[in-house]
Write a structure and sequence with these properties.
760 residues, 5-stranded parallel β-sheet, 63% helix
């Protein structure tokens, strides 16, 4: 499988034609170009046939070997980078009621006209860091106005720099979203922020993009997200001035204050109609003054006044004038900025059901919320939740992002959370339902991924929405939709009474991280789950979380850290019931196998097998027979391996366990290969590959391909071995396994000694 290094949907055929023509002009054969450039004949051939594109370093080596002039080099680079699809369109909708900001727009349009030549990063900043001043509205309006000058698309992210949680969006998470929008497969996104930033700059090079970084906390949060291309326009909004970007990155600062009286009146008229403002000019003027000329406050008041066309402006003004408390997040010496009063007026205009729904919605810890999660929080049906959300959107208390999810401004969220305390709502019940929604639906989504965590799951709590999921693709879409909610919930819902919910949630989400190769996220999540289990002192839960954590650490090559988890597991064995003890013995054996401690691995696998047999569990017994057979093979006891696996295969087939049947076939192939029966070994490996393919298990396909390549090499089929190792490298690279490079090295150096990899 070929994974493009420089993007998705690129014009491989055009690059191939350019490469072939340049090679022929230079009177070079494939072999001579390979010798001159250091790039393999096969790789050059694949490029010329339109099968792949070069890495950046490889491209430079080819251009140097071909002695291209500057014009030819430019054409090569453009062909390698050109996209034919996957143009991101992430900008939120422009406001139809956008008014004013003439001076600011004039300034930023001057910057736009020079951005290609200067590569400037433009920062829109609110003086004094005031929230709700319209930074986002101006940034989005500007971006929409100049979008046609940046044909490669627009990227947008809310960095959540000033939310009450105090947890701004990690730049690595923002980069993951950008790379996904630019066509990088999720499984190919590197785990580290620096690597993600480097890949983002590479993908943005030669593109003309608009990048909107909204609500930034500080310069350090922004810097990894800045594209290096002079053809990109980057717009950053923040309550801070971000002067460090001006000093170090040459950014231009545009200070944004509240509206002038005229701008605020024009915006109010755009929302409620010119006639009503002309009919009561003094009331309209006092109304925007009571809003402190703050765009967010004017928008909320305007929406409510517009919804009640029969109500004069005078009573609205009197009501606002009589509200003198302030939203703490906007406390200042300027008494005109009475945003809490504005929020309270808007809140009281809601229908009772929507008012209650709004309070519960404010408890959601993530940056955005799905209708199903909101329904679960508020203990209402999904249809009712959508009706409430439409009412809140009309009231400008909620907006929608580019993904269609619902977003509360951080100040609105803070106000809603205050109301929860004032109204004595059941906060614990709402948060419990949210966690149960994320757990219950993850369990059923796991079944569609072919890796259910447990055989059964209890019914959800009353009021928890079950999402209808019927396909693997729908399951993955749901996981992606809710992953930010899970991350936020695990970090911020710290009530001790929620420990069990959090612990169970980490168990149900581990499959998604494993399937998508998200080892970093899995490790972070399982540490939270393990901490909860330790605090609850539940041995079975401690064992499950420690075992998952050990596996993820071993997958990323952190074997010493994995060993510490194994020591914890060994100390738990006497506290576990037989079923959990068997699972723990199996996990210990797996990690010991990864550590090349094969005798210990066999010891623990046999102990697990004894327990499963004693329990009369045929399915798990057959599964563990394969594990024992594998470790026997690694210790050179091949006949025992084959006999055990031949006994296990019919049982596995009877129980429909495709993955372990595939593993058993691989184990038998390995043993037969060591006994010199190469034809039988190849047949076993091919059957294993087929079964893993049916199970959508690319990781273990890579393991089998590694074994198959060694047989092909032994039989003298060097081309076949090279192809198998390259396929294995691609599959492992997709999940960031450190063993991918070894597969690639094997493919390029068939004379090197090969050490078979392990599996269970």
């Amino acid at each position: 499988m070929t994974i493009p290094e420089l993007g998705v949907g690129m014009d491989k055929a055009e690059f191939g034609r350019l490469l072939r023509a340049a090679r022929q002009r230079a009177l070079l054969t494939l072999e001579s170009l390979a010798e001159a450039s250091g790039v393999s004949v096969r790789a050059i051939s694949d490029m010329e046939r339109g099968q792949s594109l070069p890495r950046q370093a490889t491209l430079s080596e080819l251009m140097d070997a071909l002695e291209l002039d500057e014009d030819e080099r430019r054409r090569f680079v453009e062909a390698a980078m050109r996209r034919t699809e996957q143009v991101p369109r992430q900008l939120p909708p422009d406001l139809a009621t956008f008014r004013g900001r003439t001076e600011a727009l004039t300034a930023v349009h001057r910057l736009t006209s020079h951005v290609a030549g200067r590569g400037a990063h433009v920062v829109i900043s609110a003086i004094g860091g005031m929230a709700g001043v319209g930074k986002t509205a101006l940034a989005v309006h500007w971006a929409h106005q100049v979008a046609d000058r940046f044909p490669d698309g627009q990227l947008y992210v809310n960095l959540r720099g000033f939310e009450d949680s105090g947890r701004p969006l990690d730049p690595g998470a923002a980069l993951a979203g950008f790379l996904d929008a630019l066509g990088v497969p999720r499984s190919s996104i590197p785990p580290g922020t620096e690597e993600r930033a480097a890949l983002f700059r590479e993908r943005a090079a030669s593109r003309r993009l608009i990048v909107v970084l909204d609500n930034a906390r500080d310069e350090e949060q922004v810097r990894p997200l800045l594209p290096a291309s002079a053809g990109c326009l980057t717009i950053v909004t923040s309550r801070s001035q971000l002067s460090g970007l001006a000093v170090a990155e040459g950014a231009t600062l545009v200070g944004l204050d509240v509206w002038s009286r005229e701008e605020a009146l024009a915006a109010l008229a755009a929302r409620i109609g010119e006639e009503r403002c002309r009919a009561e000019p003094r009331a309209a003027a006092e109304l925007v003054e009571l809003c402190g000329f703050l765009p967010l406050a004017v928008a909320i008041v305007g929406a409510q006044v517009s919804a009640s066309p029969q109500v004069p402006l005078g009573p609205v003004v009197r009501e606002l004038r009589d509200s003198r408390t302030r939203l703490d997040a906007l406390a200042s010496g300027d008494r005109r900025v009475d945003v809490r009063a504005v929020f309270s007026w808007s809140y009281r205009a809601l229908t009772p059901g929507t008012a209650r729904f709004f309070r519960h919605l404010a408890l959601h810890p993530g940056p955005s919320v799905s209708a199903e999660a909101a329904a679960s929080l508020a203990d209402v049906g999904t249809a009712a939740a959508r009706r409430h959300l439409r009412e809140l959107i009309s009231a400008n208390l909620v907006s929608r992002d580019a993904e269609g999810l619902y977003v509360l401004h951080d100040l609105v969220r803070a106000y809603g959370a205050e109301l929860v305390e004032r109204e004595r709502d059941d906060r614990l019940g709402a948060e419990s339902r949210l966690l149960d929604y994320l757990r219950y639906n993850a369990h059923w989504a796991n079944r569609l991924l072919g890796r259910s965590v447990s055989d059964s799951v209890g019914p959800p709590a009353d009021g928890v929405v079950r999402v209808p999921l019927d396909t693997r693709e729908e399951a993955l879409v749901w996981f992606r939709q809710e992953e930010s909610a899970v991350a936020a919930a695990l970090r911020s819902l710290e009530d001790p009474r929620l420990l069990r919910f959090r612990m169970n949630l980490t168990q149900d989400w581990v499959t998604y991280y494993s399937v998508t190769g998200r080892w970093t996220e899995e490790i972070e999540t399982k540490r939270i789950g393990l901490d909860a289990a330790l605090r609850l002192d539940e041995p079975a839960a401690i064992a499950r979380n420690a075992a998952d954590l050990a596996r993820a650490l071993a997958e990323t090559g952190r074997l010493d850290e994995a060993d510490r988890q194994v020591e914890l597991l060994l100390g738990l064995l006497d506290r576990l019931d037989p079923v959990d003890r068997a699972a723990t013995e199996r996990s210990i054996g797996w990690v010991r196998g990864r550590q090349q401690r094969h005798a210990e691995a066999l010891h623990h696998a046999r102990r697990a097998l004894e327990i499963y047999r004693a329990q009369g569990d045929e399915g798990t017994t057959a599964r563990e027979m394969n594990a024992v057979g594998w470790y026997l093979a690694l210790l050179g006891r091949y006949e025992e391996t084959i006999a055990l696996c031949e006994e296990a295969v019919p049982l596995l087939r009877r129980h429909g366990n495709l993955r372990i049947e595939a593993a058993a076939r691989d184990t038998m192939g390995y043993a037969r290969q060591r006994l010199g029966d190469l034809d039988a070994a190849v047949a076993d490996y091919q059957e294993s590959l087929r079964l893993y393919g049916e199970a959508f298990d690319g990781y273990n396909q890579a393991e089998v391909l590694d074994h198959l390549a060694t047989v092909q090499k032994e039989r003298g089929d060097r081309a076949g071995a090279r192809e198998s190792w390259l396929r294995a490298a691609d599959l492992l690279n997709a999940i960031h396994s450190p063993r991918a490079e070894r597969m690639r090295a094997n493919a390029h150096d068939l004379d090197a000694a090969t050490t078979p990899t392990e599996q269970t």
